Amino acid sequence: MFRSVFISDVHLGLADCQAGYLLDFLRSAQCERLYLVGDIVDLENLEKQPYWRDEHGAVLAEIFAIAARGTKVTYIPGNHDAALRRFAGQRFGGVEIALNAVHVAADGRRYRVSHGDEFDGGHDAPAWLLKLGDALQGFICSASRRFNALRRRLGLDYLPLSIRIKQTIGRARRFIEDFERRVAEQARHDGFDGQICGHIHYGRIVDRGGVLYVNDGDWVEHCTALVEHHDGALELLHWTEQRRSIALCRAEMPVPEALPAAA
Predict the structure, then answer these.
(1) Where are the alpha helices (DSSP H) in 111-254?
(2) CA 67, 70, 76, 80: dihedral to nearest 10 degrees?
(3) H-type helices in 69-160, by residue range?
(4) What is the pLDDT of residues 189-199, one digit of tens each?
(5) Model's pTM, two decimal places?
(6) Strand boundaries in 187-233, DSSP class E
């Protein structure tokens, strides 16, 4: 049993959502607190091209069941479910809606929890470039879905194809580094020990100048969740046929740079 669990970027309502793996994780990982850190339901995609499978509904049912069992569940909407932000401060089926949260870990460290889209530098980019980026992201996810469907037919485990691309393309690496820097700088400025977010689909735990940058990853490409143990240690888990620890951070140990789920 964990003290806290953080998941984001599930994108229920998107064909690329790995709802089956997430459902298995939610049924296996008991916790006292569950943070849904944005883009859980992809309302944006549902408006464009409706897509829904039984597994998607089962994930929502499991979340409400978790809340009914006494776990404190906080839903922080992201950019793809931003329409839910107007319900901040309200509670639905035991799930609290909030714009952000302050999480105090068992070891006393204070983390701001938010989706992360507020740290985007995209406003400096031309509209056509943003649209091109969205199109490329969609292409990569589609290719990954077909790639892993073939692997399953061959009896092979899930492999996040997109993590390879993000590691090898210089522009993608710079985007991730710039995002991390902005997040860490703001957390430091606001007096937090760290920031927990999602948004960019790249799970990491890394120390940036004494501030802990923590990204819980996603359930579209990499199938990762962040868990807090009862001593305050933070661990990033990859959860598919192969379940593994990607990074572990305790207060008394140096912070390791998280390895991607496919490494």
Answers:
(1) 127-153, 161-168, 170-189
(2) -20
(3) 127-153
(4) 999 999 999 99
(5) 0.84
(6) 194-197, 204-208, 211-215, 224-228
